[in-house]
Amino acid sequence: MRVLIECTFVFEHPETNTGIQRVVRNIINNLPAPTESIEFIPIIIRYGEVWRLNDLERLNQPKKNENKIRRLVRLLDKLEAMFRDYKLSSKYKRFFSHNAVLRFFAIVLVYFGKHISHGVSRLLALFVIDRSLSEITIEGNERLVLLDSSWSTEVFKQTERLYERGVKVTAVIYDTIPIRFPQYCEDSQVTHFSSWLDKITTVADSYLSISNAEKELVRQELISRKGEHYFQAKSIDYFYLGADFKKPDSVQTIREGINNTLCKKTNGGSVYIAVGTVEPRKNHRYMLDEFDLLWEKGSSASLIIIGRVGWMCDELLDRINNHEQLNEKLFFYNDLNDSELELFYSKATALLFTSRAEGFGLPIVEALQKNIPVICSDIAVFREIGRDYCFYVDIDQKASLAGLIEKLHDGRISLSTVDRPDWKWLSWSEAADEFCQKIAAIKLSSS
User: Fold this and answer.
1) Does residue 94 form part of some domain?
2) For 207-247, how does the pLDDT look when each residue is reduced to its tens digit (9 = 90+)?
3) Is residue 10 a contact partner of residue 24, using CB atoms and an 8 Å limit?
4) Which of 193, 331, 334, 395 could form a disulfide with 304 if both were Cys (CB 3.0 to 4.6 A apart)?
5) What are the percentages of helix, strand and coil residues in the chain, rounded to 5?
6) pTM above 0.70, yes or no
7) Contact criterion met (CB below 8 Å) for 352 and 370
8) Domain span at residue 168?
């Protein structure tokens, strides 16, 4: 059996390496060698065709290595996506809802903009020869695994075509956060994801998620859409993500200001770091509220927020930038290199990870691998991943985090009470093996 592992978005966006993209790269780079019974083949979908990826290094190719035509194709694809999202997002429609003439011209512009962008992009693509790809002949007895962020229109259309030709489809659903917590997502993201979820149920015969807790949430969501009978002829399972302990590149320079923060500004007090994209679901506002309580009592503890700026966080950024403790006990970095991040990890009293919702919780695994204490929100998936190795706080209870930190400071609780040196987790190689075993084990009445 041939298993086609779809990785289109990562191939087209080699400069992006967060969340799903990290998972896709690590799984693809650790696929097993073919055997007599099964072969795992990384593929991408573009221009309405399926292409075999022969050179895995293309997944990591810097953006600057692309030629001008490919960069123009990428730009046109982004324009097409922007016009397509207009139909999905009420955010754009509000600007034209009170004027019929403007609304008419907006609809015309969207229609022609989408189709012109798509047409020109496909025409230019004919001039781009990518030797890392080769055509693949579909025989109809393959299994397509949608491992990447596969909710683009082009990928789904081709998925439908493959399904009609007899190809079995497995969809990887990392989480259902846009459905369960729409208040933490852009309107277009919620609508687009919900639409994709409805579509994928028409072709998929199996599903994978990335934790048992999230698997059950996916199951509940699909049953609510399709009915109790849906999983009589379908399967759903999960696999765990991997994490490899890797030291940073020694040639990366640690900036003087970074050293000053850790050696001078923190004044020898405890240092708590929060690593992850700054966006509402990560719950940085809660952390800041709790540290404000500590600082009002004269605590010397420092909060260091590390992560790129995401979405819907303008109010939080204003609060941080105007905070009286900024660069004294509160610090924010969105541009650390690997060596600098490793330095913060090495000096951290604990990692804070108080998200309201996650599909997995990879920062917990990565911190425990470094033998760093973890204080996280008390949600089901974190209990599943962190087990008894973490400290848990109730993020809906005021002073839950602040109270725990006070107890740690006063010696009423010791971070050493949790024995972490025996912590062990899957490597990415082991995670890829588990992923492939789950795929190979799918047995359905329709198979």
Assistant:
1) no
2) 999 999 999 999 999 999 999 999 988 999 999 999 876 66
3) yes
4) 331
5) 50, 15, 35
6) yes
7) no
8) 2-67+128-242+430-440
